[in-house]
Design a protein that fits this description.
The protein is of the alpha/beta class. It has one domain: Leucine-rich repeat, LRR (right-handed beta-alpha superhelix) (Alpha-Beta Horseshoe), CATH 3.80.10. The chain contains 2 helices and 11 strands; from the N terminus they run αβββββββββαββ. The chain is globular, with a radius of gyration of 19 Å. The termini are far apart. The C terminus is likely disordered. Bound molecules: 2-acetamido-2-deoxy-beta-D-glucopyranose. 2-acetamido-2-deoxy-beta-D-glucopyranose binds next to loops. This is Leucine-rich repeat protein 1-like isoform X1. Keywords: Leucine-rich repeat, Repeat, Signal.
């Protein structure tokens, strides 16, 4: 391979890297445009920067890909958007204690690296998407104190039984079914408090 070829290959590699970094910043910026932010906690989210890694409340890995969003108790209102699923290396998505409303986008099931989904104490409504059952590495899913309804998808319960999900808190929502005192799965899940209606979802 000649020198020119190497230069061209490097250029393409760099271009791909830049494109992927920007797509993560674009997704976060798109979300920002949908949010009310009375305390201006998202002021540093400047979409003209190279990538979102210097933004407050955002953490990247060494490849400049976002792995954390920490926006607990930040006074935010507005929806979650499907484009957040473009943050393919997301591990910790912590937006508890806000006024986040609307439904949980099914696309968030694309977060293959996710460890913790902290959505508790918001105004989220509608069902838990069955696609969240694709979150094979998730260990904590705290959905308590929202307005979620329907039944808990068997796909999500299977994460407790066969996957890595250690804590699934769905208390204080509008789920159907009897309140189940104790642990319906027999595993270390102390916080499933609704009858999941296994098999009927
Ligand atoms: C689960 O959520 C409920 C309601 O918000 C809360 O009272 C309880 O402490 C939570 N359980 C755990 C183990 O965090």
């Amino acid at each position: 391979m000649g020198f020119k070829m190497v230069v061209v290959a490097l250029f393409i590699a760099v271009a791909i890297r830049i494109a992927s970094s920007n797509s993560e910043g674009d997704a976060l910026n798109e979300w920002k445009t949908k949010l009310m932010d009375p305390h201006e906690v998202l002021q540093s989210w400047d979409p003209t920067l190279f990538n979102p890694c210097t933004w407050y409340h955002v953490t990247c890995n060494s490849d400049n890909s976002v792995i954390r969003v920490d926006l607990g108790n930040a006074g935010l209102s507005g929806p979650l958007i499907p484009q957040l699923s473009h943050l393919v290396n997301m591990q910790y998505f912590m937006v508890f204690g806000n006024e986040i409303s609307g439904t949980i986008p099914g696309e968030l099931g694309n977060w293959k690296m996710l460890v913790s989904l902290g959505l508790q104490q918001n105004q989220l409504s509608g069902p838990i998407p069955a696609s969240l059952g694709q979150l094979k590495s998730v260990r904590f899913m705290t959905l308590n104190s929202n307005k979620l309804s329907g039944t808990i998808p068997i796909e999500v319960l299977e994460l407790v039984l066969w996957g890595n999900l250690q804590t699934l808190n769905v208390s204080d929502n509008f789920f159907q079914g009897r309140v189940h005192a104790g642990d319906p799965t027999g595993y270390a899940v102390t916080t499933i408090t609704q009858d999941p209606k296994i098999g009927s979802a």
